[in-house]
Amino acid sequence: MPKKDDFDLQEFLPYLLNQAAEASSMAFQKIYKSRYGMLRTEWRVLFHLGIYGRMTANEIGRRSNMHKTKISRAVAKLEERRFLTRERSAGDRRQEMLELTQAGRTAYRELREVAMAYDDELAAQFSPQEQRVLRAALKKLAQTGRAGGPYL
Amino acid sequence: MPKKDDFDLQEFLPYLLNQAAEASSMAFQKIYKSRYGMLRTEWRVLFHLGIYGRMTANEIGRRSNMHKTKISRAVAKLEERRFLTRERSAGDRRQEMLELTQAGRTAYRELREVAMAYDDELAAQFSPQEQRVLRAALKKLAQTGRAGGPYL
DNA sequence: TCTTGTTAGTTACAAAATCAACTGTTAGCA
DNA sequence: TGCTAACAGTTGATTTTGTAACTAACAAGA
Fold first, then answer.
1. pLDDT, tens digit, for every residue of A80-128?
2. To 10 degrees, what angle do helices B57-64 and B40-52 make?
């Protein structure tokens, strides 16, 4: 019988995190995909504008850590669907201010309700203590490779 | 001043998990990509065979939760690079037994060392208690949408 | 044995992500 | 002013993924 290796893939954090992320994204994805035909990048842009209000594509990129080409395409899609408008900045004409339309805000609010309910369901599996530890740990891990975090 | 929305994207678990997963995968990805030209699916297949020994593509799929087309392509790539061999099963000639070659085992062992060291580094940010809570929570979340878990 | 249904794995095509090069604009400075 | 470098955002080419349809093999019952 061939010696079984003792490395446990299920304990390897990058792998485990990916499994958890994918599994927990599924149910939410089904909704924004089927209900609005959106992509992941699209709901993210929608949420950034819904939560923080007017901002440029660049700032969305800094906050969300998505590449600017992804954002550019997501913005184009959302504009096409009349969920947002762009306005070239007077001060710096390279950048455009993005802002949700009424329809965009409505979509955002609906999806936000779904997200909140879903998050509650996910979190309900854990004690308040566990939730705190989990969220704090995930935030730390999300800093991996950035200034201030390890591995850079 | 427009009312700032109170939904906190940084607390939304699917989003937070994704951020943590991506950030923490980066450093490891750099290594298997630059050193072996591998894709995520490829190191996963390599690891499954390295850890558990001979198995079929199908079983890798069940364990890793990757779609069979991804696995099929990863296996083809790994075979091309002479990291594994396939052998059609005598009992059921639809399936093929996959097994690492010597070169495959060497690559696996090297990457395993990297993975273990990296995981240690990541985990070092947390107390033993926090680590237990984190890993347990991630395993639960990874079950989301499966039989036995919520949302199905 | 024939039919029907299921399974393992592959392939073809469409959708999406990545990467590099591009446009137009601003900023710094000689 | 005129030159160069940097920056915001877009576009096009390539790579990777996802979806569906496919082949080949098995299984089970009429």
1. 999 999 999 989 999 999 999 999 999 999 999 999 999 999 999 999 9
2. 100
List all residues 6 or more positions away from A10 whose beta carbon is below 8 Å from its beta carbon.
A16, B139
Across the range A47-75, mean pLDDT stands at 96
Chain segment B101-135, per-residue pLDDT in tens: 999 999 999 999 999 999 999 999 999 999 999 99
As given in the structure block, the two tokens for residue B125 are: 């940010």
**Nearest by CB to A126, which of B17, B20, B137?**
B137
Contacts of A48 in chain B (CB under 8 A): 9
Q: Which of residues 71-130 of B touch strand C (CB under 7 A)?
A: 71-73, 75-76, 86, 92, 94-96
Nearest to A43 by CA among A80, A71, A13: A71
Contacts of B151 in chain A (CB under 8 A): 27, 121
Q: What is the pLDDT of residues A24-53, one digit of tens each?
A: 999 999 999 999 999 999 999 999 999 999
The domains found in chain A, sorted by start residue, are: 10-109 (1.10.10.10)
Whether residues B44 and A17 touch (CB distance < 8 A) is answered with: no
DSSP A108: H
Do residue A9 and residue B48 have CB atoms under 8 angstroms apart?
Answer: yes
